[in-house]
Amino acid sequence: MIEIGLAGKPNAGKSTFFKSATLIDVAIANYPFTTIEPNVGIAYVRTRCVCRELGIECGKCVDGWRFIPVKLIDVAGLVPGAHEGRGLGNEFLDNLRQAEGIIHVVDASGSTDEEGNEVGVGEHDPVEDVKFLREELDMWLFGILKRNWNKIARRIHLERRDPAKFITEQLAGLGFEEWMVKQALKVVGKGVHEFSDEDLKVFAQELRKVRMKMVIAANKADKAPDELIKRLLSLDEIVIPTSAYYELALRLASKNGYIKYLPGDEDFEILKPLNEKQKKLLDEIRAFMKKYGGTGVQKAINTLVFDVLNYIVVYPVEDENKFTDSKGNVLPDAFLVKKGTTVRELAYKIHTEIGESFIYAIDAKRKVRIGEDYELKHNDVVKIVSAK
Ligand SMILES: Nc1nc2c(ncn2[C@@H]2O[C@H](COP(=O)(O)OP(=O)(O)OP(=O)(O)O)[C@@H](O)[C@H]2O)c(=O)[nH]1
């Protein structure tokens, strides 16, 4: 399952974001326990289910929306100097290294200072927080590289190793792929034994850029001055205005039967009489949703997974005519795979044995045979034929 890290300074609204994103109706969730550990939960990406396109009922989606689980990790402890071990620094960064992508929750209202202490709305510049996480990550990576660099450079030189390959192996725990290292080396444009500290910093920064893909949740947008939101949106980053607080309120109201609301909807429907206080809050929420096209929480998750990390959705089936598994379940699974994944790679993802004994596959929509190198497309439905 994809792992997403949730980062942000204290009081930015990380816990609220985490709670809202992992609080989900049983009708939607195929994971009954949404919180695995205190800081690890299951959130969902929302996608148009392929069943509508096929003109069938799958029973797995709600109003044509399919919710696919992703792991969300609330990574606490981001404070200035985290890379030097301040706060929960080391733990914070260690937790982030498992994450494939990061949602950086920023207090867009500017009502918390750099350490998370409350100040007046607009008194702190949230753009500083965006820069600050980037810099912490860069410094942390630089620190790791610096500690190992002499040894790495010497061995590459003496043992005539391929630099990108060797560095990738040596930094295995950080999840770099060889192409990422190669690309970063190219930017520096020098042999590894000639790297100065400055070069190593550039190298660290380039690696961070390709490895730690991020969206910024401009949170507390409900009380943020417009100019701060504008400032954040003008950055060369992917920024989504959010109100985790409103999202949490909506999910709770939906869970308790007051409203009909699916995570990611742009509006909701009131189902039960409300008291004045509830009515007022829901009116406020509705106005916010109108302005931003929703609360932004689902949008932040979706944007990271689909637009930034480039995932697509595919549906493996065993019966290419009925679109079912062997037990007759219609479109039982929706898989998230990276754009460019081949059908053989999908077979491996389903089961190593299926991958190993792969013979061919069938594109169930077009009813044609496809070979192992076929690159999967979004919403493909495929039957894999293997010798097993
Ligand atoms: N207005 C508004 N308040 C929010 C929003 N999200 C969170 N808050 C409030 O901001 C405060 C901090 O939120 P938390 O979710 O506890 O923040 P955190 O980032 O997890 O903080 P730490 O646990 O200290 O790391 C709480 O009082 C929340 O109710 C939001 O979208 N809008």
From TrEMBL:
<dbReference type="InterPro" id="IPR012676">
    <property type="entry name" value="TGS-like"/>
</dbReference>
<protein>
    <recommendedName>
        <fullName>OBG-type G domain-containing protein</fullName>
    </recommendedName>
</protein>
<dbReference type="GO" id="GO:0005737">
    <property type="term" value="C:cytoplasm"/>
</dbReference>
<dbReference type="Pfam" id="PF08438">
    <property type="entry name" value="YGR210-like_G4"/>
</dbReference>
<dbReference type="Pfam" id="PF02824">
    <property type="entry name" value="TGS"/>
</dbReference>
<dbReference type="InterPro" id="IPR004095">
    <property type="entry name" value="TGS"/>
</dbReference>
<dbReference type="InterPro" id="IPR027417">
    <property type="entry name" value="P-loop_NTPase"/>
</dbReference>
<dbReference type="InterPro" id="IPR006073">
    <property type="entry name" value="GTP-bd"/>
</dbReference>
<dbReference type="Pfam" id="PF01926">
    <property type="entry name" value="MMR_HSR1"/>
</dbReference>
<dbReference type="GO" id="GO:0016887">
    <property type="term" value="F:ATP hydrolysis activity"/>
</dbReference>
<keyword id="KW-0547">Nucleotide-binding</keyword>
<dbReference type="InterPro" id="IPR012675">
    <property type="entry name" value="Beta-grasp_dom_sf"/>
</dbReference>
<comment type="similarity">
    <text>Belongs to the RelA/SpoT family.</text>
</comment>
<dbReference type="InterPro" id="IPR013646">
    <property type="entry name" value="YGR210-like_G4"/>
</dbReference>
<feature type="domain" description="OBG-type G">
    <location>
        <begin position="2"/>
        <end position="262"/>
    </location>
</feature>
<dbReference type="GO" id="GO:0005525">
    <property type="term" value="F:GTP binding"/>
</dbReference>
<dbReference type="InterPro" id="IPR031167">
    <property type="entry name" value="G_OBG"/>
</dbReference>
